[in-house]
Amino acid sequence: MLRFFLIRLARALLTVALVVTFAFVVLRLSGDPALIIMSVDAPPEAIAAFRKAWGLDDPIWLQYLRYFSAIGQGELGQSMRDGRPAIQLVAERIPATLALTLPALALKLGIGIPSGIYAALNRDSLTDRIVMITAVAGFTIPSFVLGLVLVLIFSVQLGWLPSGGQESWRHAILPVVTLGIGGAAVLARFTRSAMLEVLGQSYIRTASAKGVPWAAVVRGHALPNAAVPTVTVVGFMVGSLIAGAVVVESVFSWPGVGRLLVVAVSNRDLAVVQCILLLVAITMVSANLIVDLLYGVLDPRLRSGAKAGGH
Amino acid sequence: MADITASTAPVVASKAAPKPKKRIPLLVWFGIIWIGFIIIVALSADWITPYRFTAYDLRNRLSLPFHPLHWLGTDELGRDVLSRLIISIRISLLVAFGATVISAVFGTLMGFLAAHFRGLVEQFVLMLADFQAAMPFLILALSVLAFFGNSLPLFICLMGLYGWERYARIARGLAISAGAQGYAGAVRQIGASPSRVYLRHILPNIASTLIVSMTLTFPEVILLESGLSFLGLGVQPPMTSLGNMVGYGREYLTRAPWIMLAPACTIVMTTLAVSLVGDWLRDRLDPTLR
Amino acid sequence: MNAPLLQVRNVARRYTMRRGLLGRPVEVRAVDGVSLTVERGKTLGVVGESGSGKSTTGRLALGLEQPDAGDVLFQGAALPALGTADWRKIRARMQMIYQDPLGALDRRLSILEQVREPYDVHGIGDPKERDGLTLKLLQSVGLRADQGARYPHELSGGQRQRAVIARALATKPDLLVCDEPVSALDVSIQAQVINLLVDIQQELGLGLLFISHDLKVIRQVSHRVAVMYLGRIVEEGEADLLLQAPAHPYTEALVSAAPVPGRRGRPRIVLQGDPPNPAARPSGCAFHPRCHAARDRCKVESPALLPLPDGRLTACHVAHDQANFLKAAS
Fold it and tell me: Over the stretch C159-185, which tens digit does the pLDDT of each residue have?
């Protein structure tokens, strides 16, 4: 188990290192940051000073090493626009984003998993059909369309809820619902198919043929086994707590990390973009790590590995 | 481990062959018809647009749908929504098609390289695939756009990186199993060159699986493209795409919701249609894909 | 051209196998110092249980895998490195017949297209004449022209194996390695395919390396026989001699288990203990845990493959002691 954990940890760190490398490569391929930041008609002395200040004249491998060690020490540079540390800018926005994504996650889990299970247990019933149609719709309707349609109905037509901003909890309702419905649909669809797969297995039929009550079969055998694949999807959702609201925040002018990212991208504020990229990578990788550990708990075969996996 | 366990796929594929023929469900018919319709619209866009998509009609600004001159109304500059919609369909389909094809070709190539060379090459490809699968693509795409700026070819290539790891995994797994015991190993043993083994034998055998993956990825690419364009970071004006139109129409949500609703409906219908057909194809051709 | 057709000299092949995703890698010696010779027009039968390394030996002999030690000489020259242009060219001289003909055929191409493929690959004959050549070839293995237009799944198992044989013969090879060529076929079809192989061998003077777990089949085709156990040859010699009077206890057990028509009531030796596992090789003579004649020496000292007075090679302490005793007594 410890070995399993250490290998996963090494892979997680490798992924983060790859993200850093990715940022560095893309950054250097994209042209001269000095010219991008200072406008083209800036005086040459100013550009030279800028280059010196940012270490842009050194050989590329030195820049790469310096880049790596700086990031290792938590120095993510200053916003090239307003000079404040990028990490501070990003950190300020995190609570706002979590205020949307955490309730949305609760909504996804609370609606998605029960309806998926219910649909699977009552296959081909009317409820199953309704859940499936909603699920397909939830996947095919992009979040910005859903968000705008909700605004059109609840803000413009009915005037019940505000259409954007962050002044009160009422402002959060529409974005949370928008985020939650889409994710709930995906999760319901996934849970249903995982459940159906498990219910078709022979050990389920054996258990119920032995006379175990159906409810106990579902609770004791089907649910734990269906949980294994579902945990992966949930893990991805947890990993997207920071990054998953980019579009929705823009629709509702919600001042979160996603909104910051979009603005930074259009302004080409590279330090901020890179900081968010790293933050997302770390969140994602940590969530994956937790999922892997949960797997070990849920699926004993993966824990020991030897008995089941070998040939 | 991988060497020994990779041989399950063809067994499953052979079981899928004898199945009673089923009639095509109604919803799938809808999907096929809509896809056909939308492709015809995209191809004949130059002839069927009533106006140039950038032409102003300043006397009829923000006119309602079912206006005698502008069936779907106009926007705030008096541009014909129908014409813009048709051009947008063309651009969005072009981006999505181009990206899907690039991604499939690139991914399959990477998968074949991994299967052929094994060792370090394979580890490298798998590492990249893991990396891509672990990161939300929207964030990666946004970062690249931040660094590189934007142009239509660059944008298509960037979208073409979406989902390549799925094709790479499929192509690698199937090529390895075909080479270890099966037909590919036999053909190689005859003395055929690697290009013959991969292009004449393995590729046709795994084509149906790859095509199914393409139809399953295609709607995701459309959603991704329209999302980025909606944020103003995808297709750039004066060009227009479905996501662009929604982004633009959002400004006039209260006064002229039809500007936003027409492209939004098109996006939803198209992704729905392709998903329905893709799911149906998967169930018919390749139940192993999930 | 005095060199034997194929000489396999002391080849070894090791795999590192992981048990599970995270298990410690275990080295498995699939083939451990095997030497073989195949002469033109003759058949060497290789027999052994699954896991004895006989298939790996076949693949090494064909150069489909690179040995970790030892070398393989084909007509006196070392095989070119795997995957090179020379390696691809020499494929025309040596071919393989597979256990599972359906797996060895491309399900998306017709039989004709596939049997024709060696001509296309090696550029034999004028492209326009190749279909004609292929049809003749199909005829020579007993397939009709209309069966050539079919796809693999439309043929029976025996017909598929005939197609695989036809494809292997297209380049008129000198060596044919048959890896369990009939074990996937119905018993009634097995004899037909074996007869076909024997006829072809007589006609073309092919050297055959015939691998099987089935002693009945080996007996029918082989001039010489090699018995493998856990990656090594334990006995090798003239087929008649070896199968009439096995010297190695393992060969003896195999022979006693295979029914021979007309002879009844022979005592059957039933092998005790676990079937061989290449990942956990016993000490000394690898066969000793299952051997009825095993002595203390067998547990510690691995027997060498040495000739007995009658010419065969045997790796068994007991058999050699007996032979020495007899020699001393006479």
Answer: 999 999 999 999 999 999 999 988 888
Phi, psi angle pair for C159, to nearest 5°: -65, -40
Query: Please, which residues have CB within 8 angstroms of residue B67's CB and are 6 or more apart in sequence?
Result: B60, B73, B74
Q: Domain residue spans in chain B?
A: 41-289
- Sequence-separated (6 or more) residues with CB below 8 Å from residue C141: C162, C163, C165, C166, C169, C196, C200
CB contact at 8 A, A101 and A244: yes
pTM of the model: 0.81
The rounded mean pLDDT for chain A is 79
Burial of C322 (0-12, 13-18, 19+ CB in 10 A): middle
Of all residues in chain B, the percent with pLDDT exceeding 90 is: 12
A35 touches A48 (CB < 8 A): no
Q: Which residues pair with C63 in a beta bridge?
A: none
What CA–CA distance (Å, rounded) separates C33 from C69? 8
Assembly ipTM: 0.83
Which residues, 6 or more positions from B111, have their beta carbon under 8 angstroms from its beta carbon? Answer: B125, B167, B168, B169, B170, B171, B172, B173, B175
Minimal C-alpha gap between A245 and chain B (Å):
11
Cβ within 8 Å of C, B 131-190? 181-183, 185-187, 189-190
Cis bond before residue B238 (omega within 30° of 0): yes
> Which residues on B lie below 8 Å from C153 (Cβ)?
14, 17
- Sole residue written with tokens 């275990």: C26
Q: Are the C-beta atoms of C147 and C74 separated by less than 8 Å?
A: no
Contact yes or no for B224/A108 (Cβ under 8 A): no
Phi then psi for residue C265, to 5 deg, are: 70, 10
Taking CA atoms, C54 is separated from C183, C193, C277, in Å, by 14, 21, 14
DSSP string over C124-143: -S-TTTHHHHHHHHHHHTT-
In this prediction, residue B16 has a pLDDT band, given cuts at 50, 70 and 90, of: very low
In the beta sheet, which residues pair with residue C229?
A: C232
CATH T-level topology, domain B41-289: MetI-like fold (1.10.3720)
| Interchain CB distance below 8 Å, C167 and B190 | yes
Q: Determine the residue of chain B that is closest to A283 in CA distance.
A: B135
Q: Taking a C-beta distance cutoff of 8 angstroms, is the pair B84, B45 a contact?
A: no
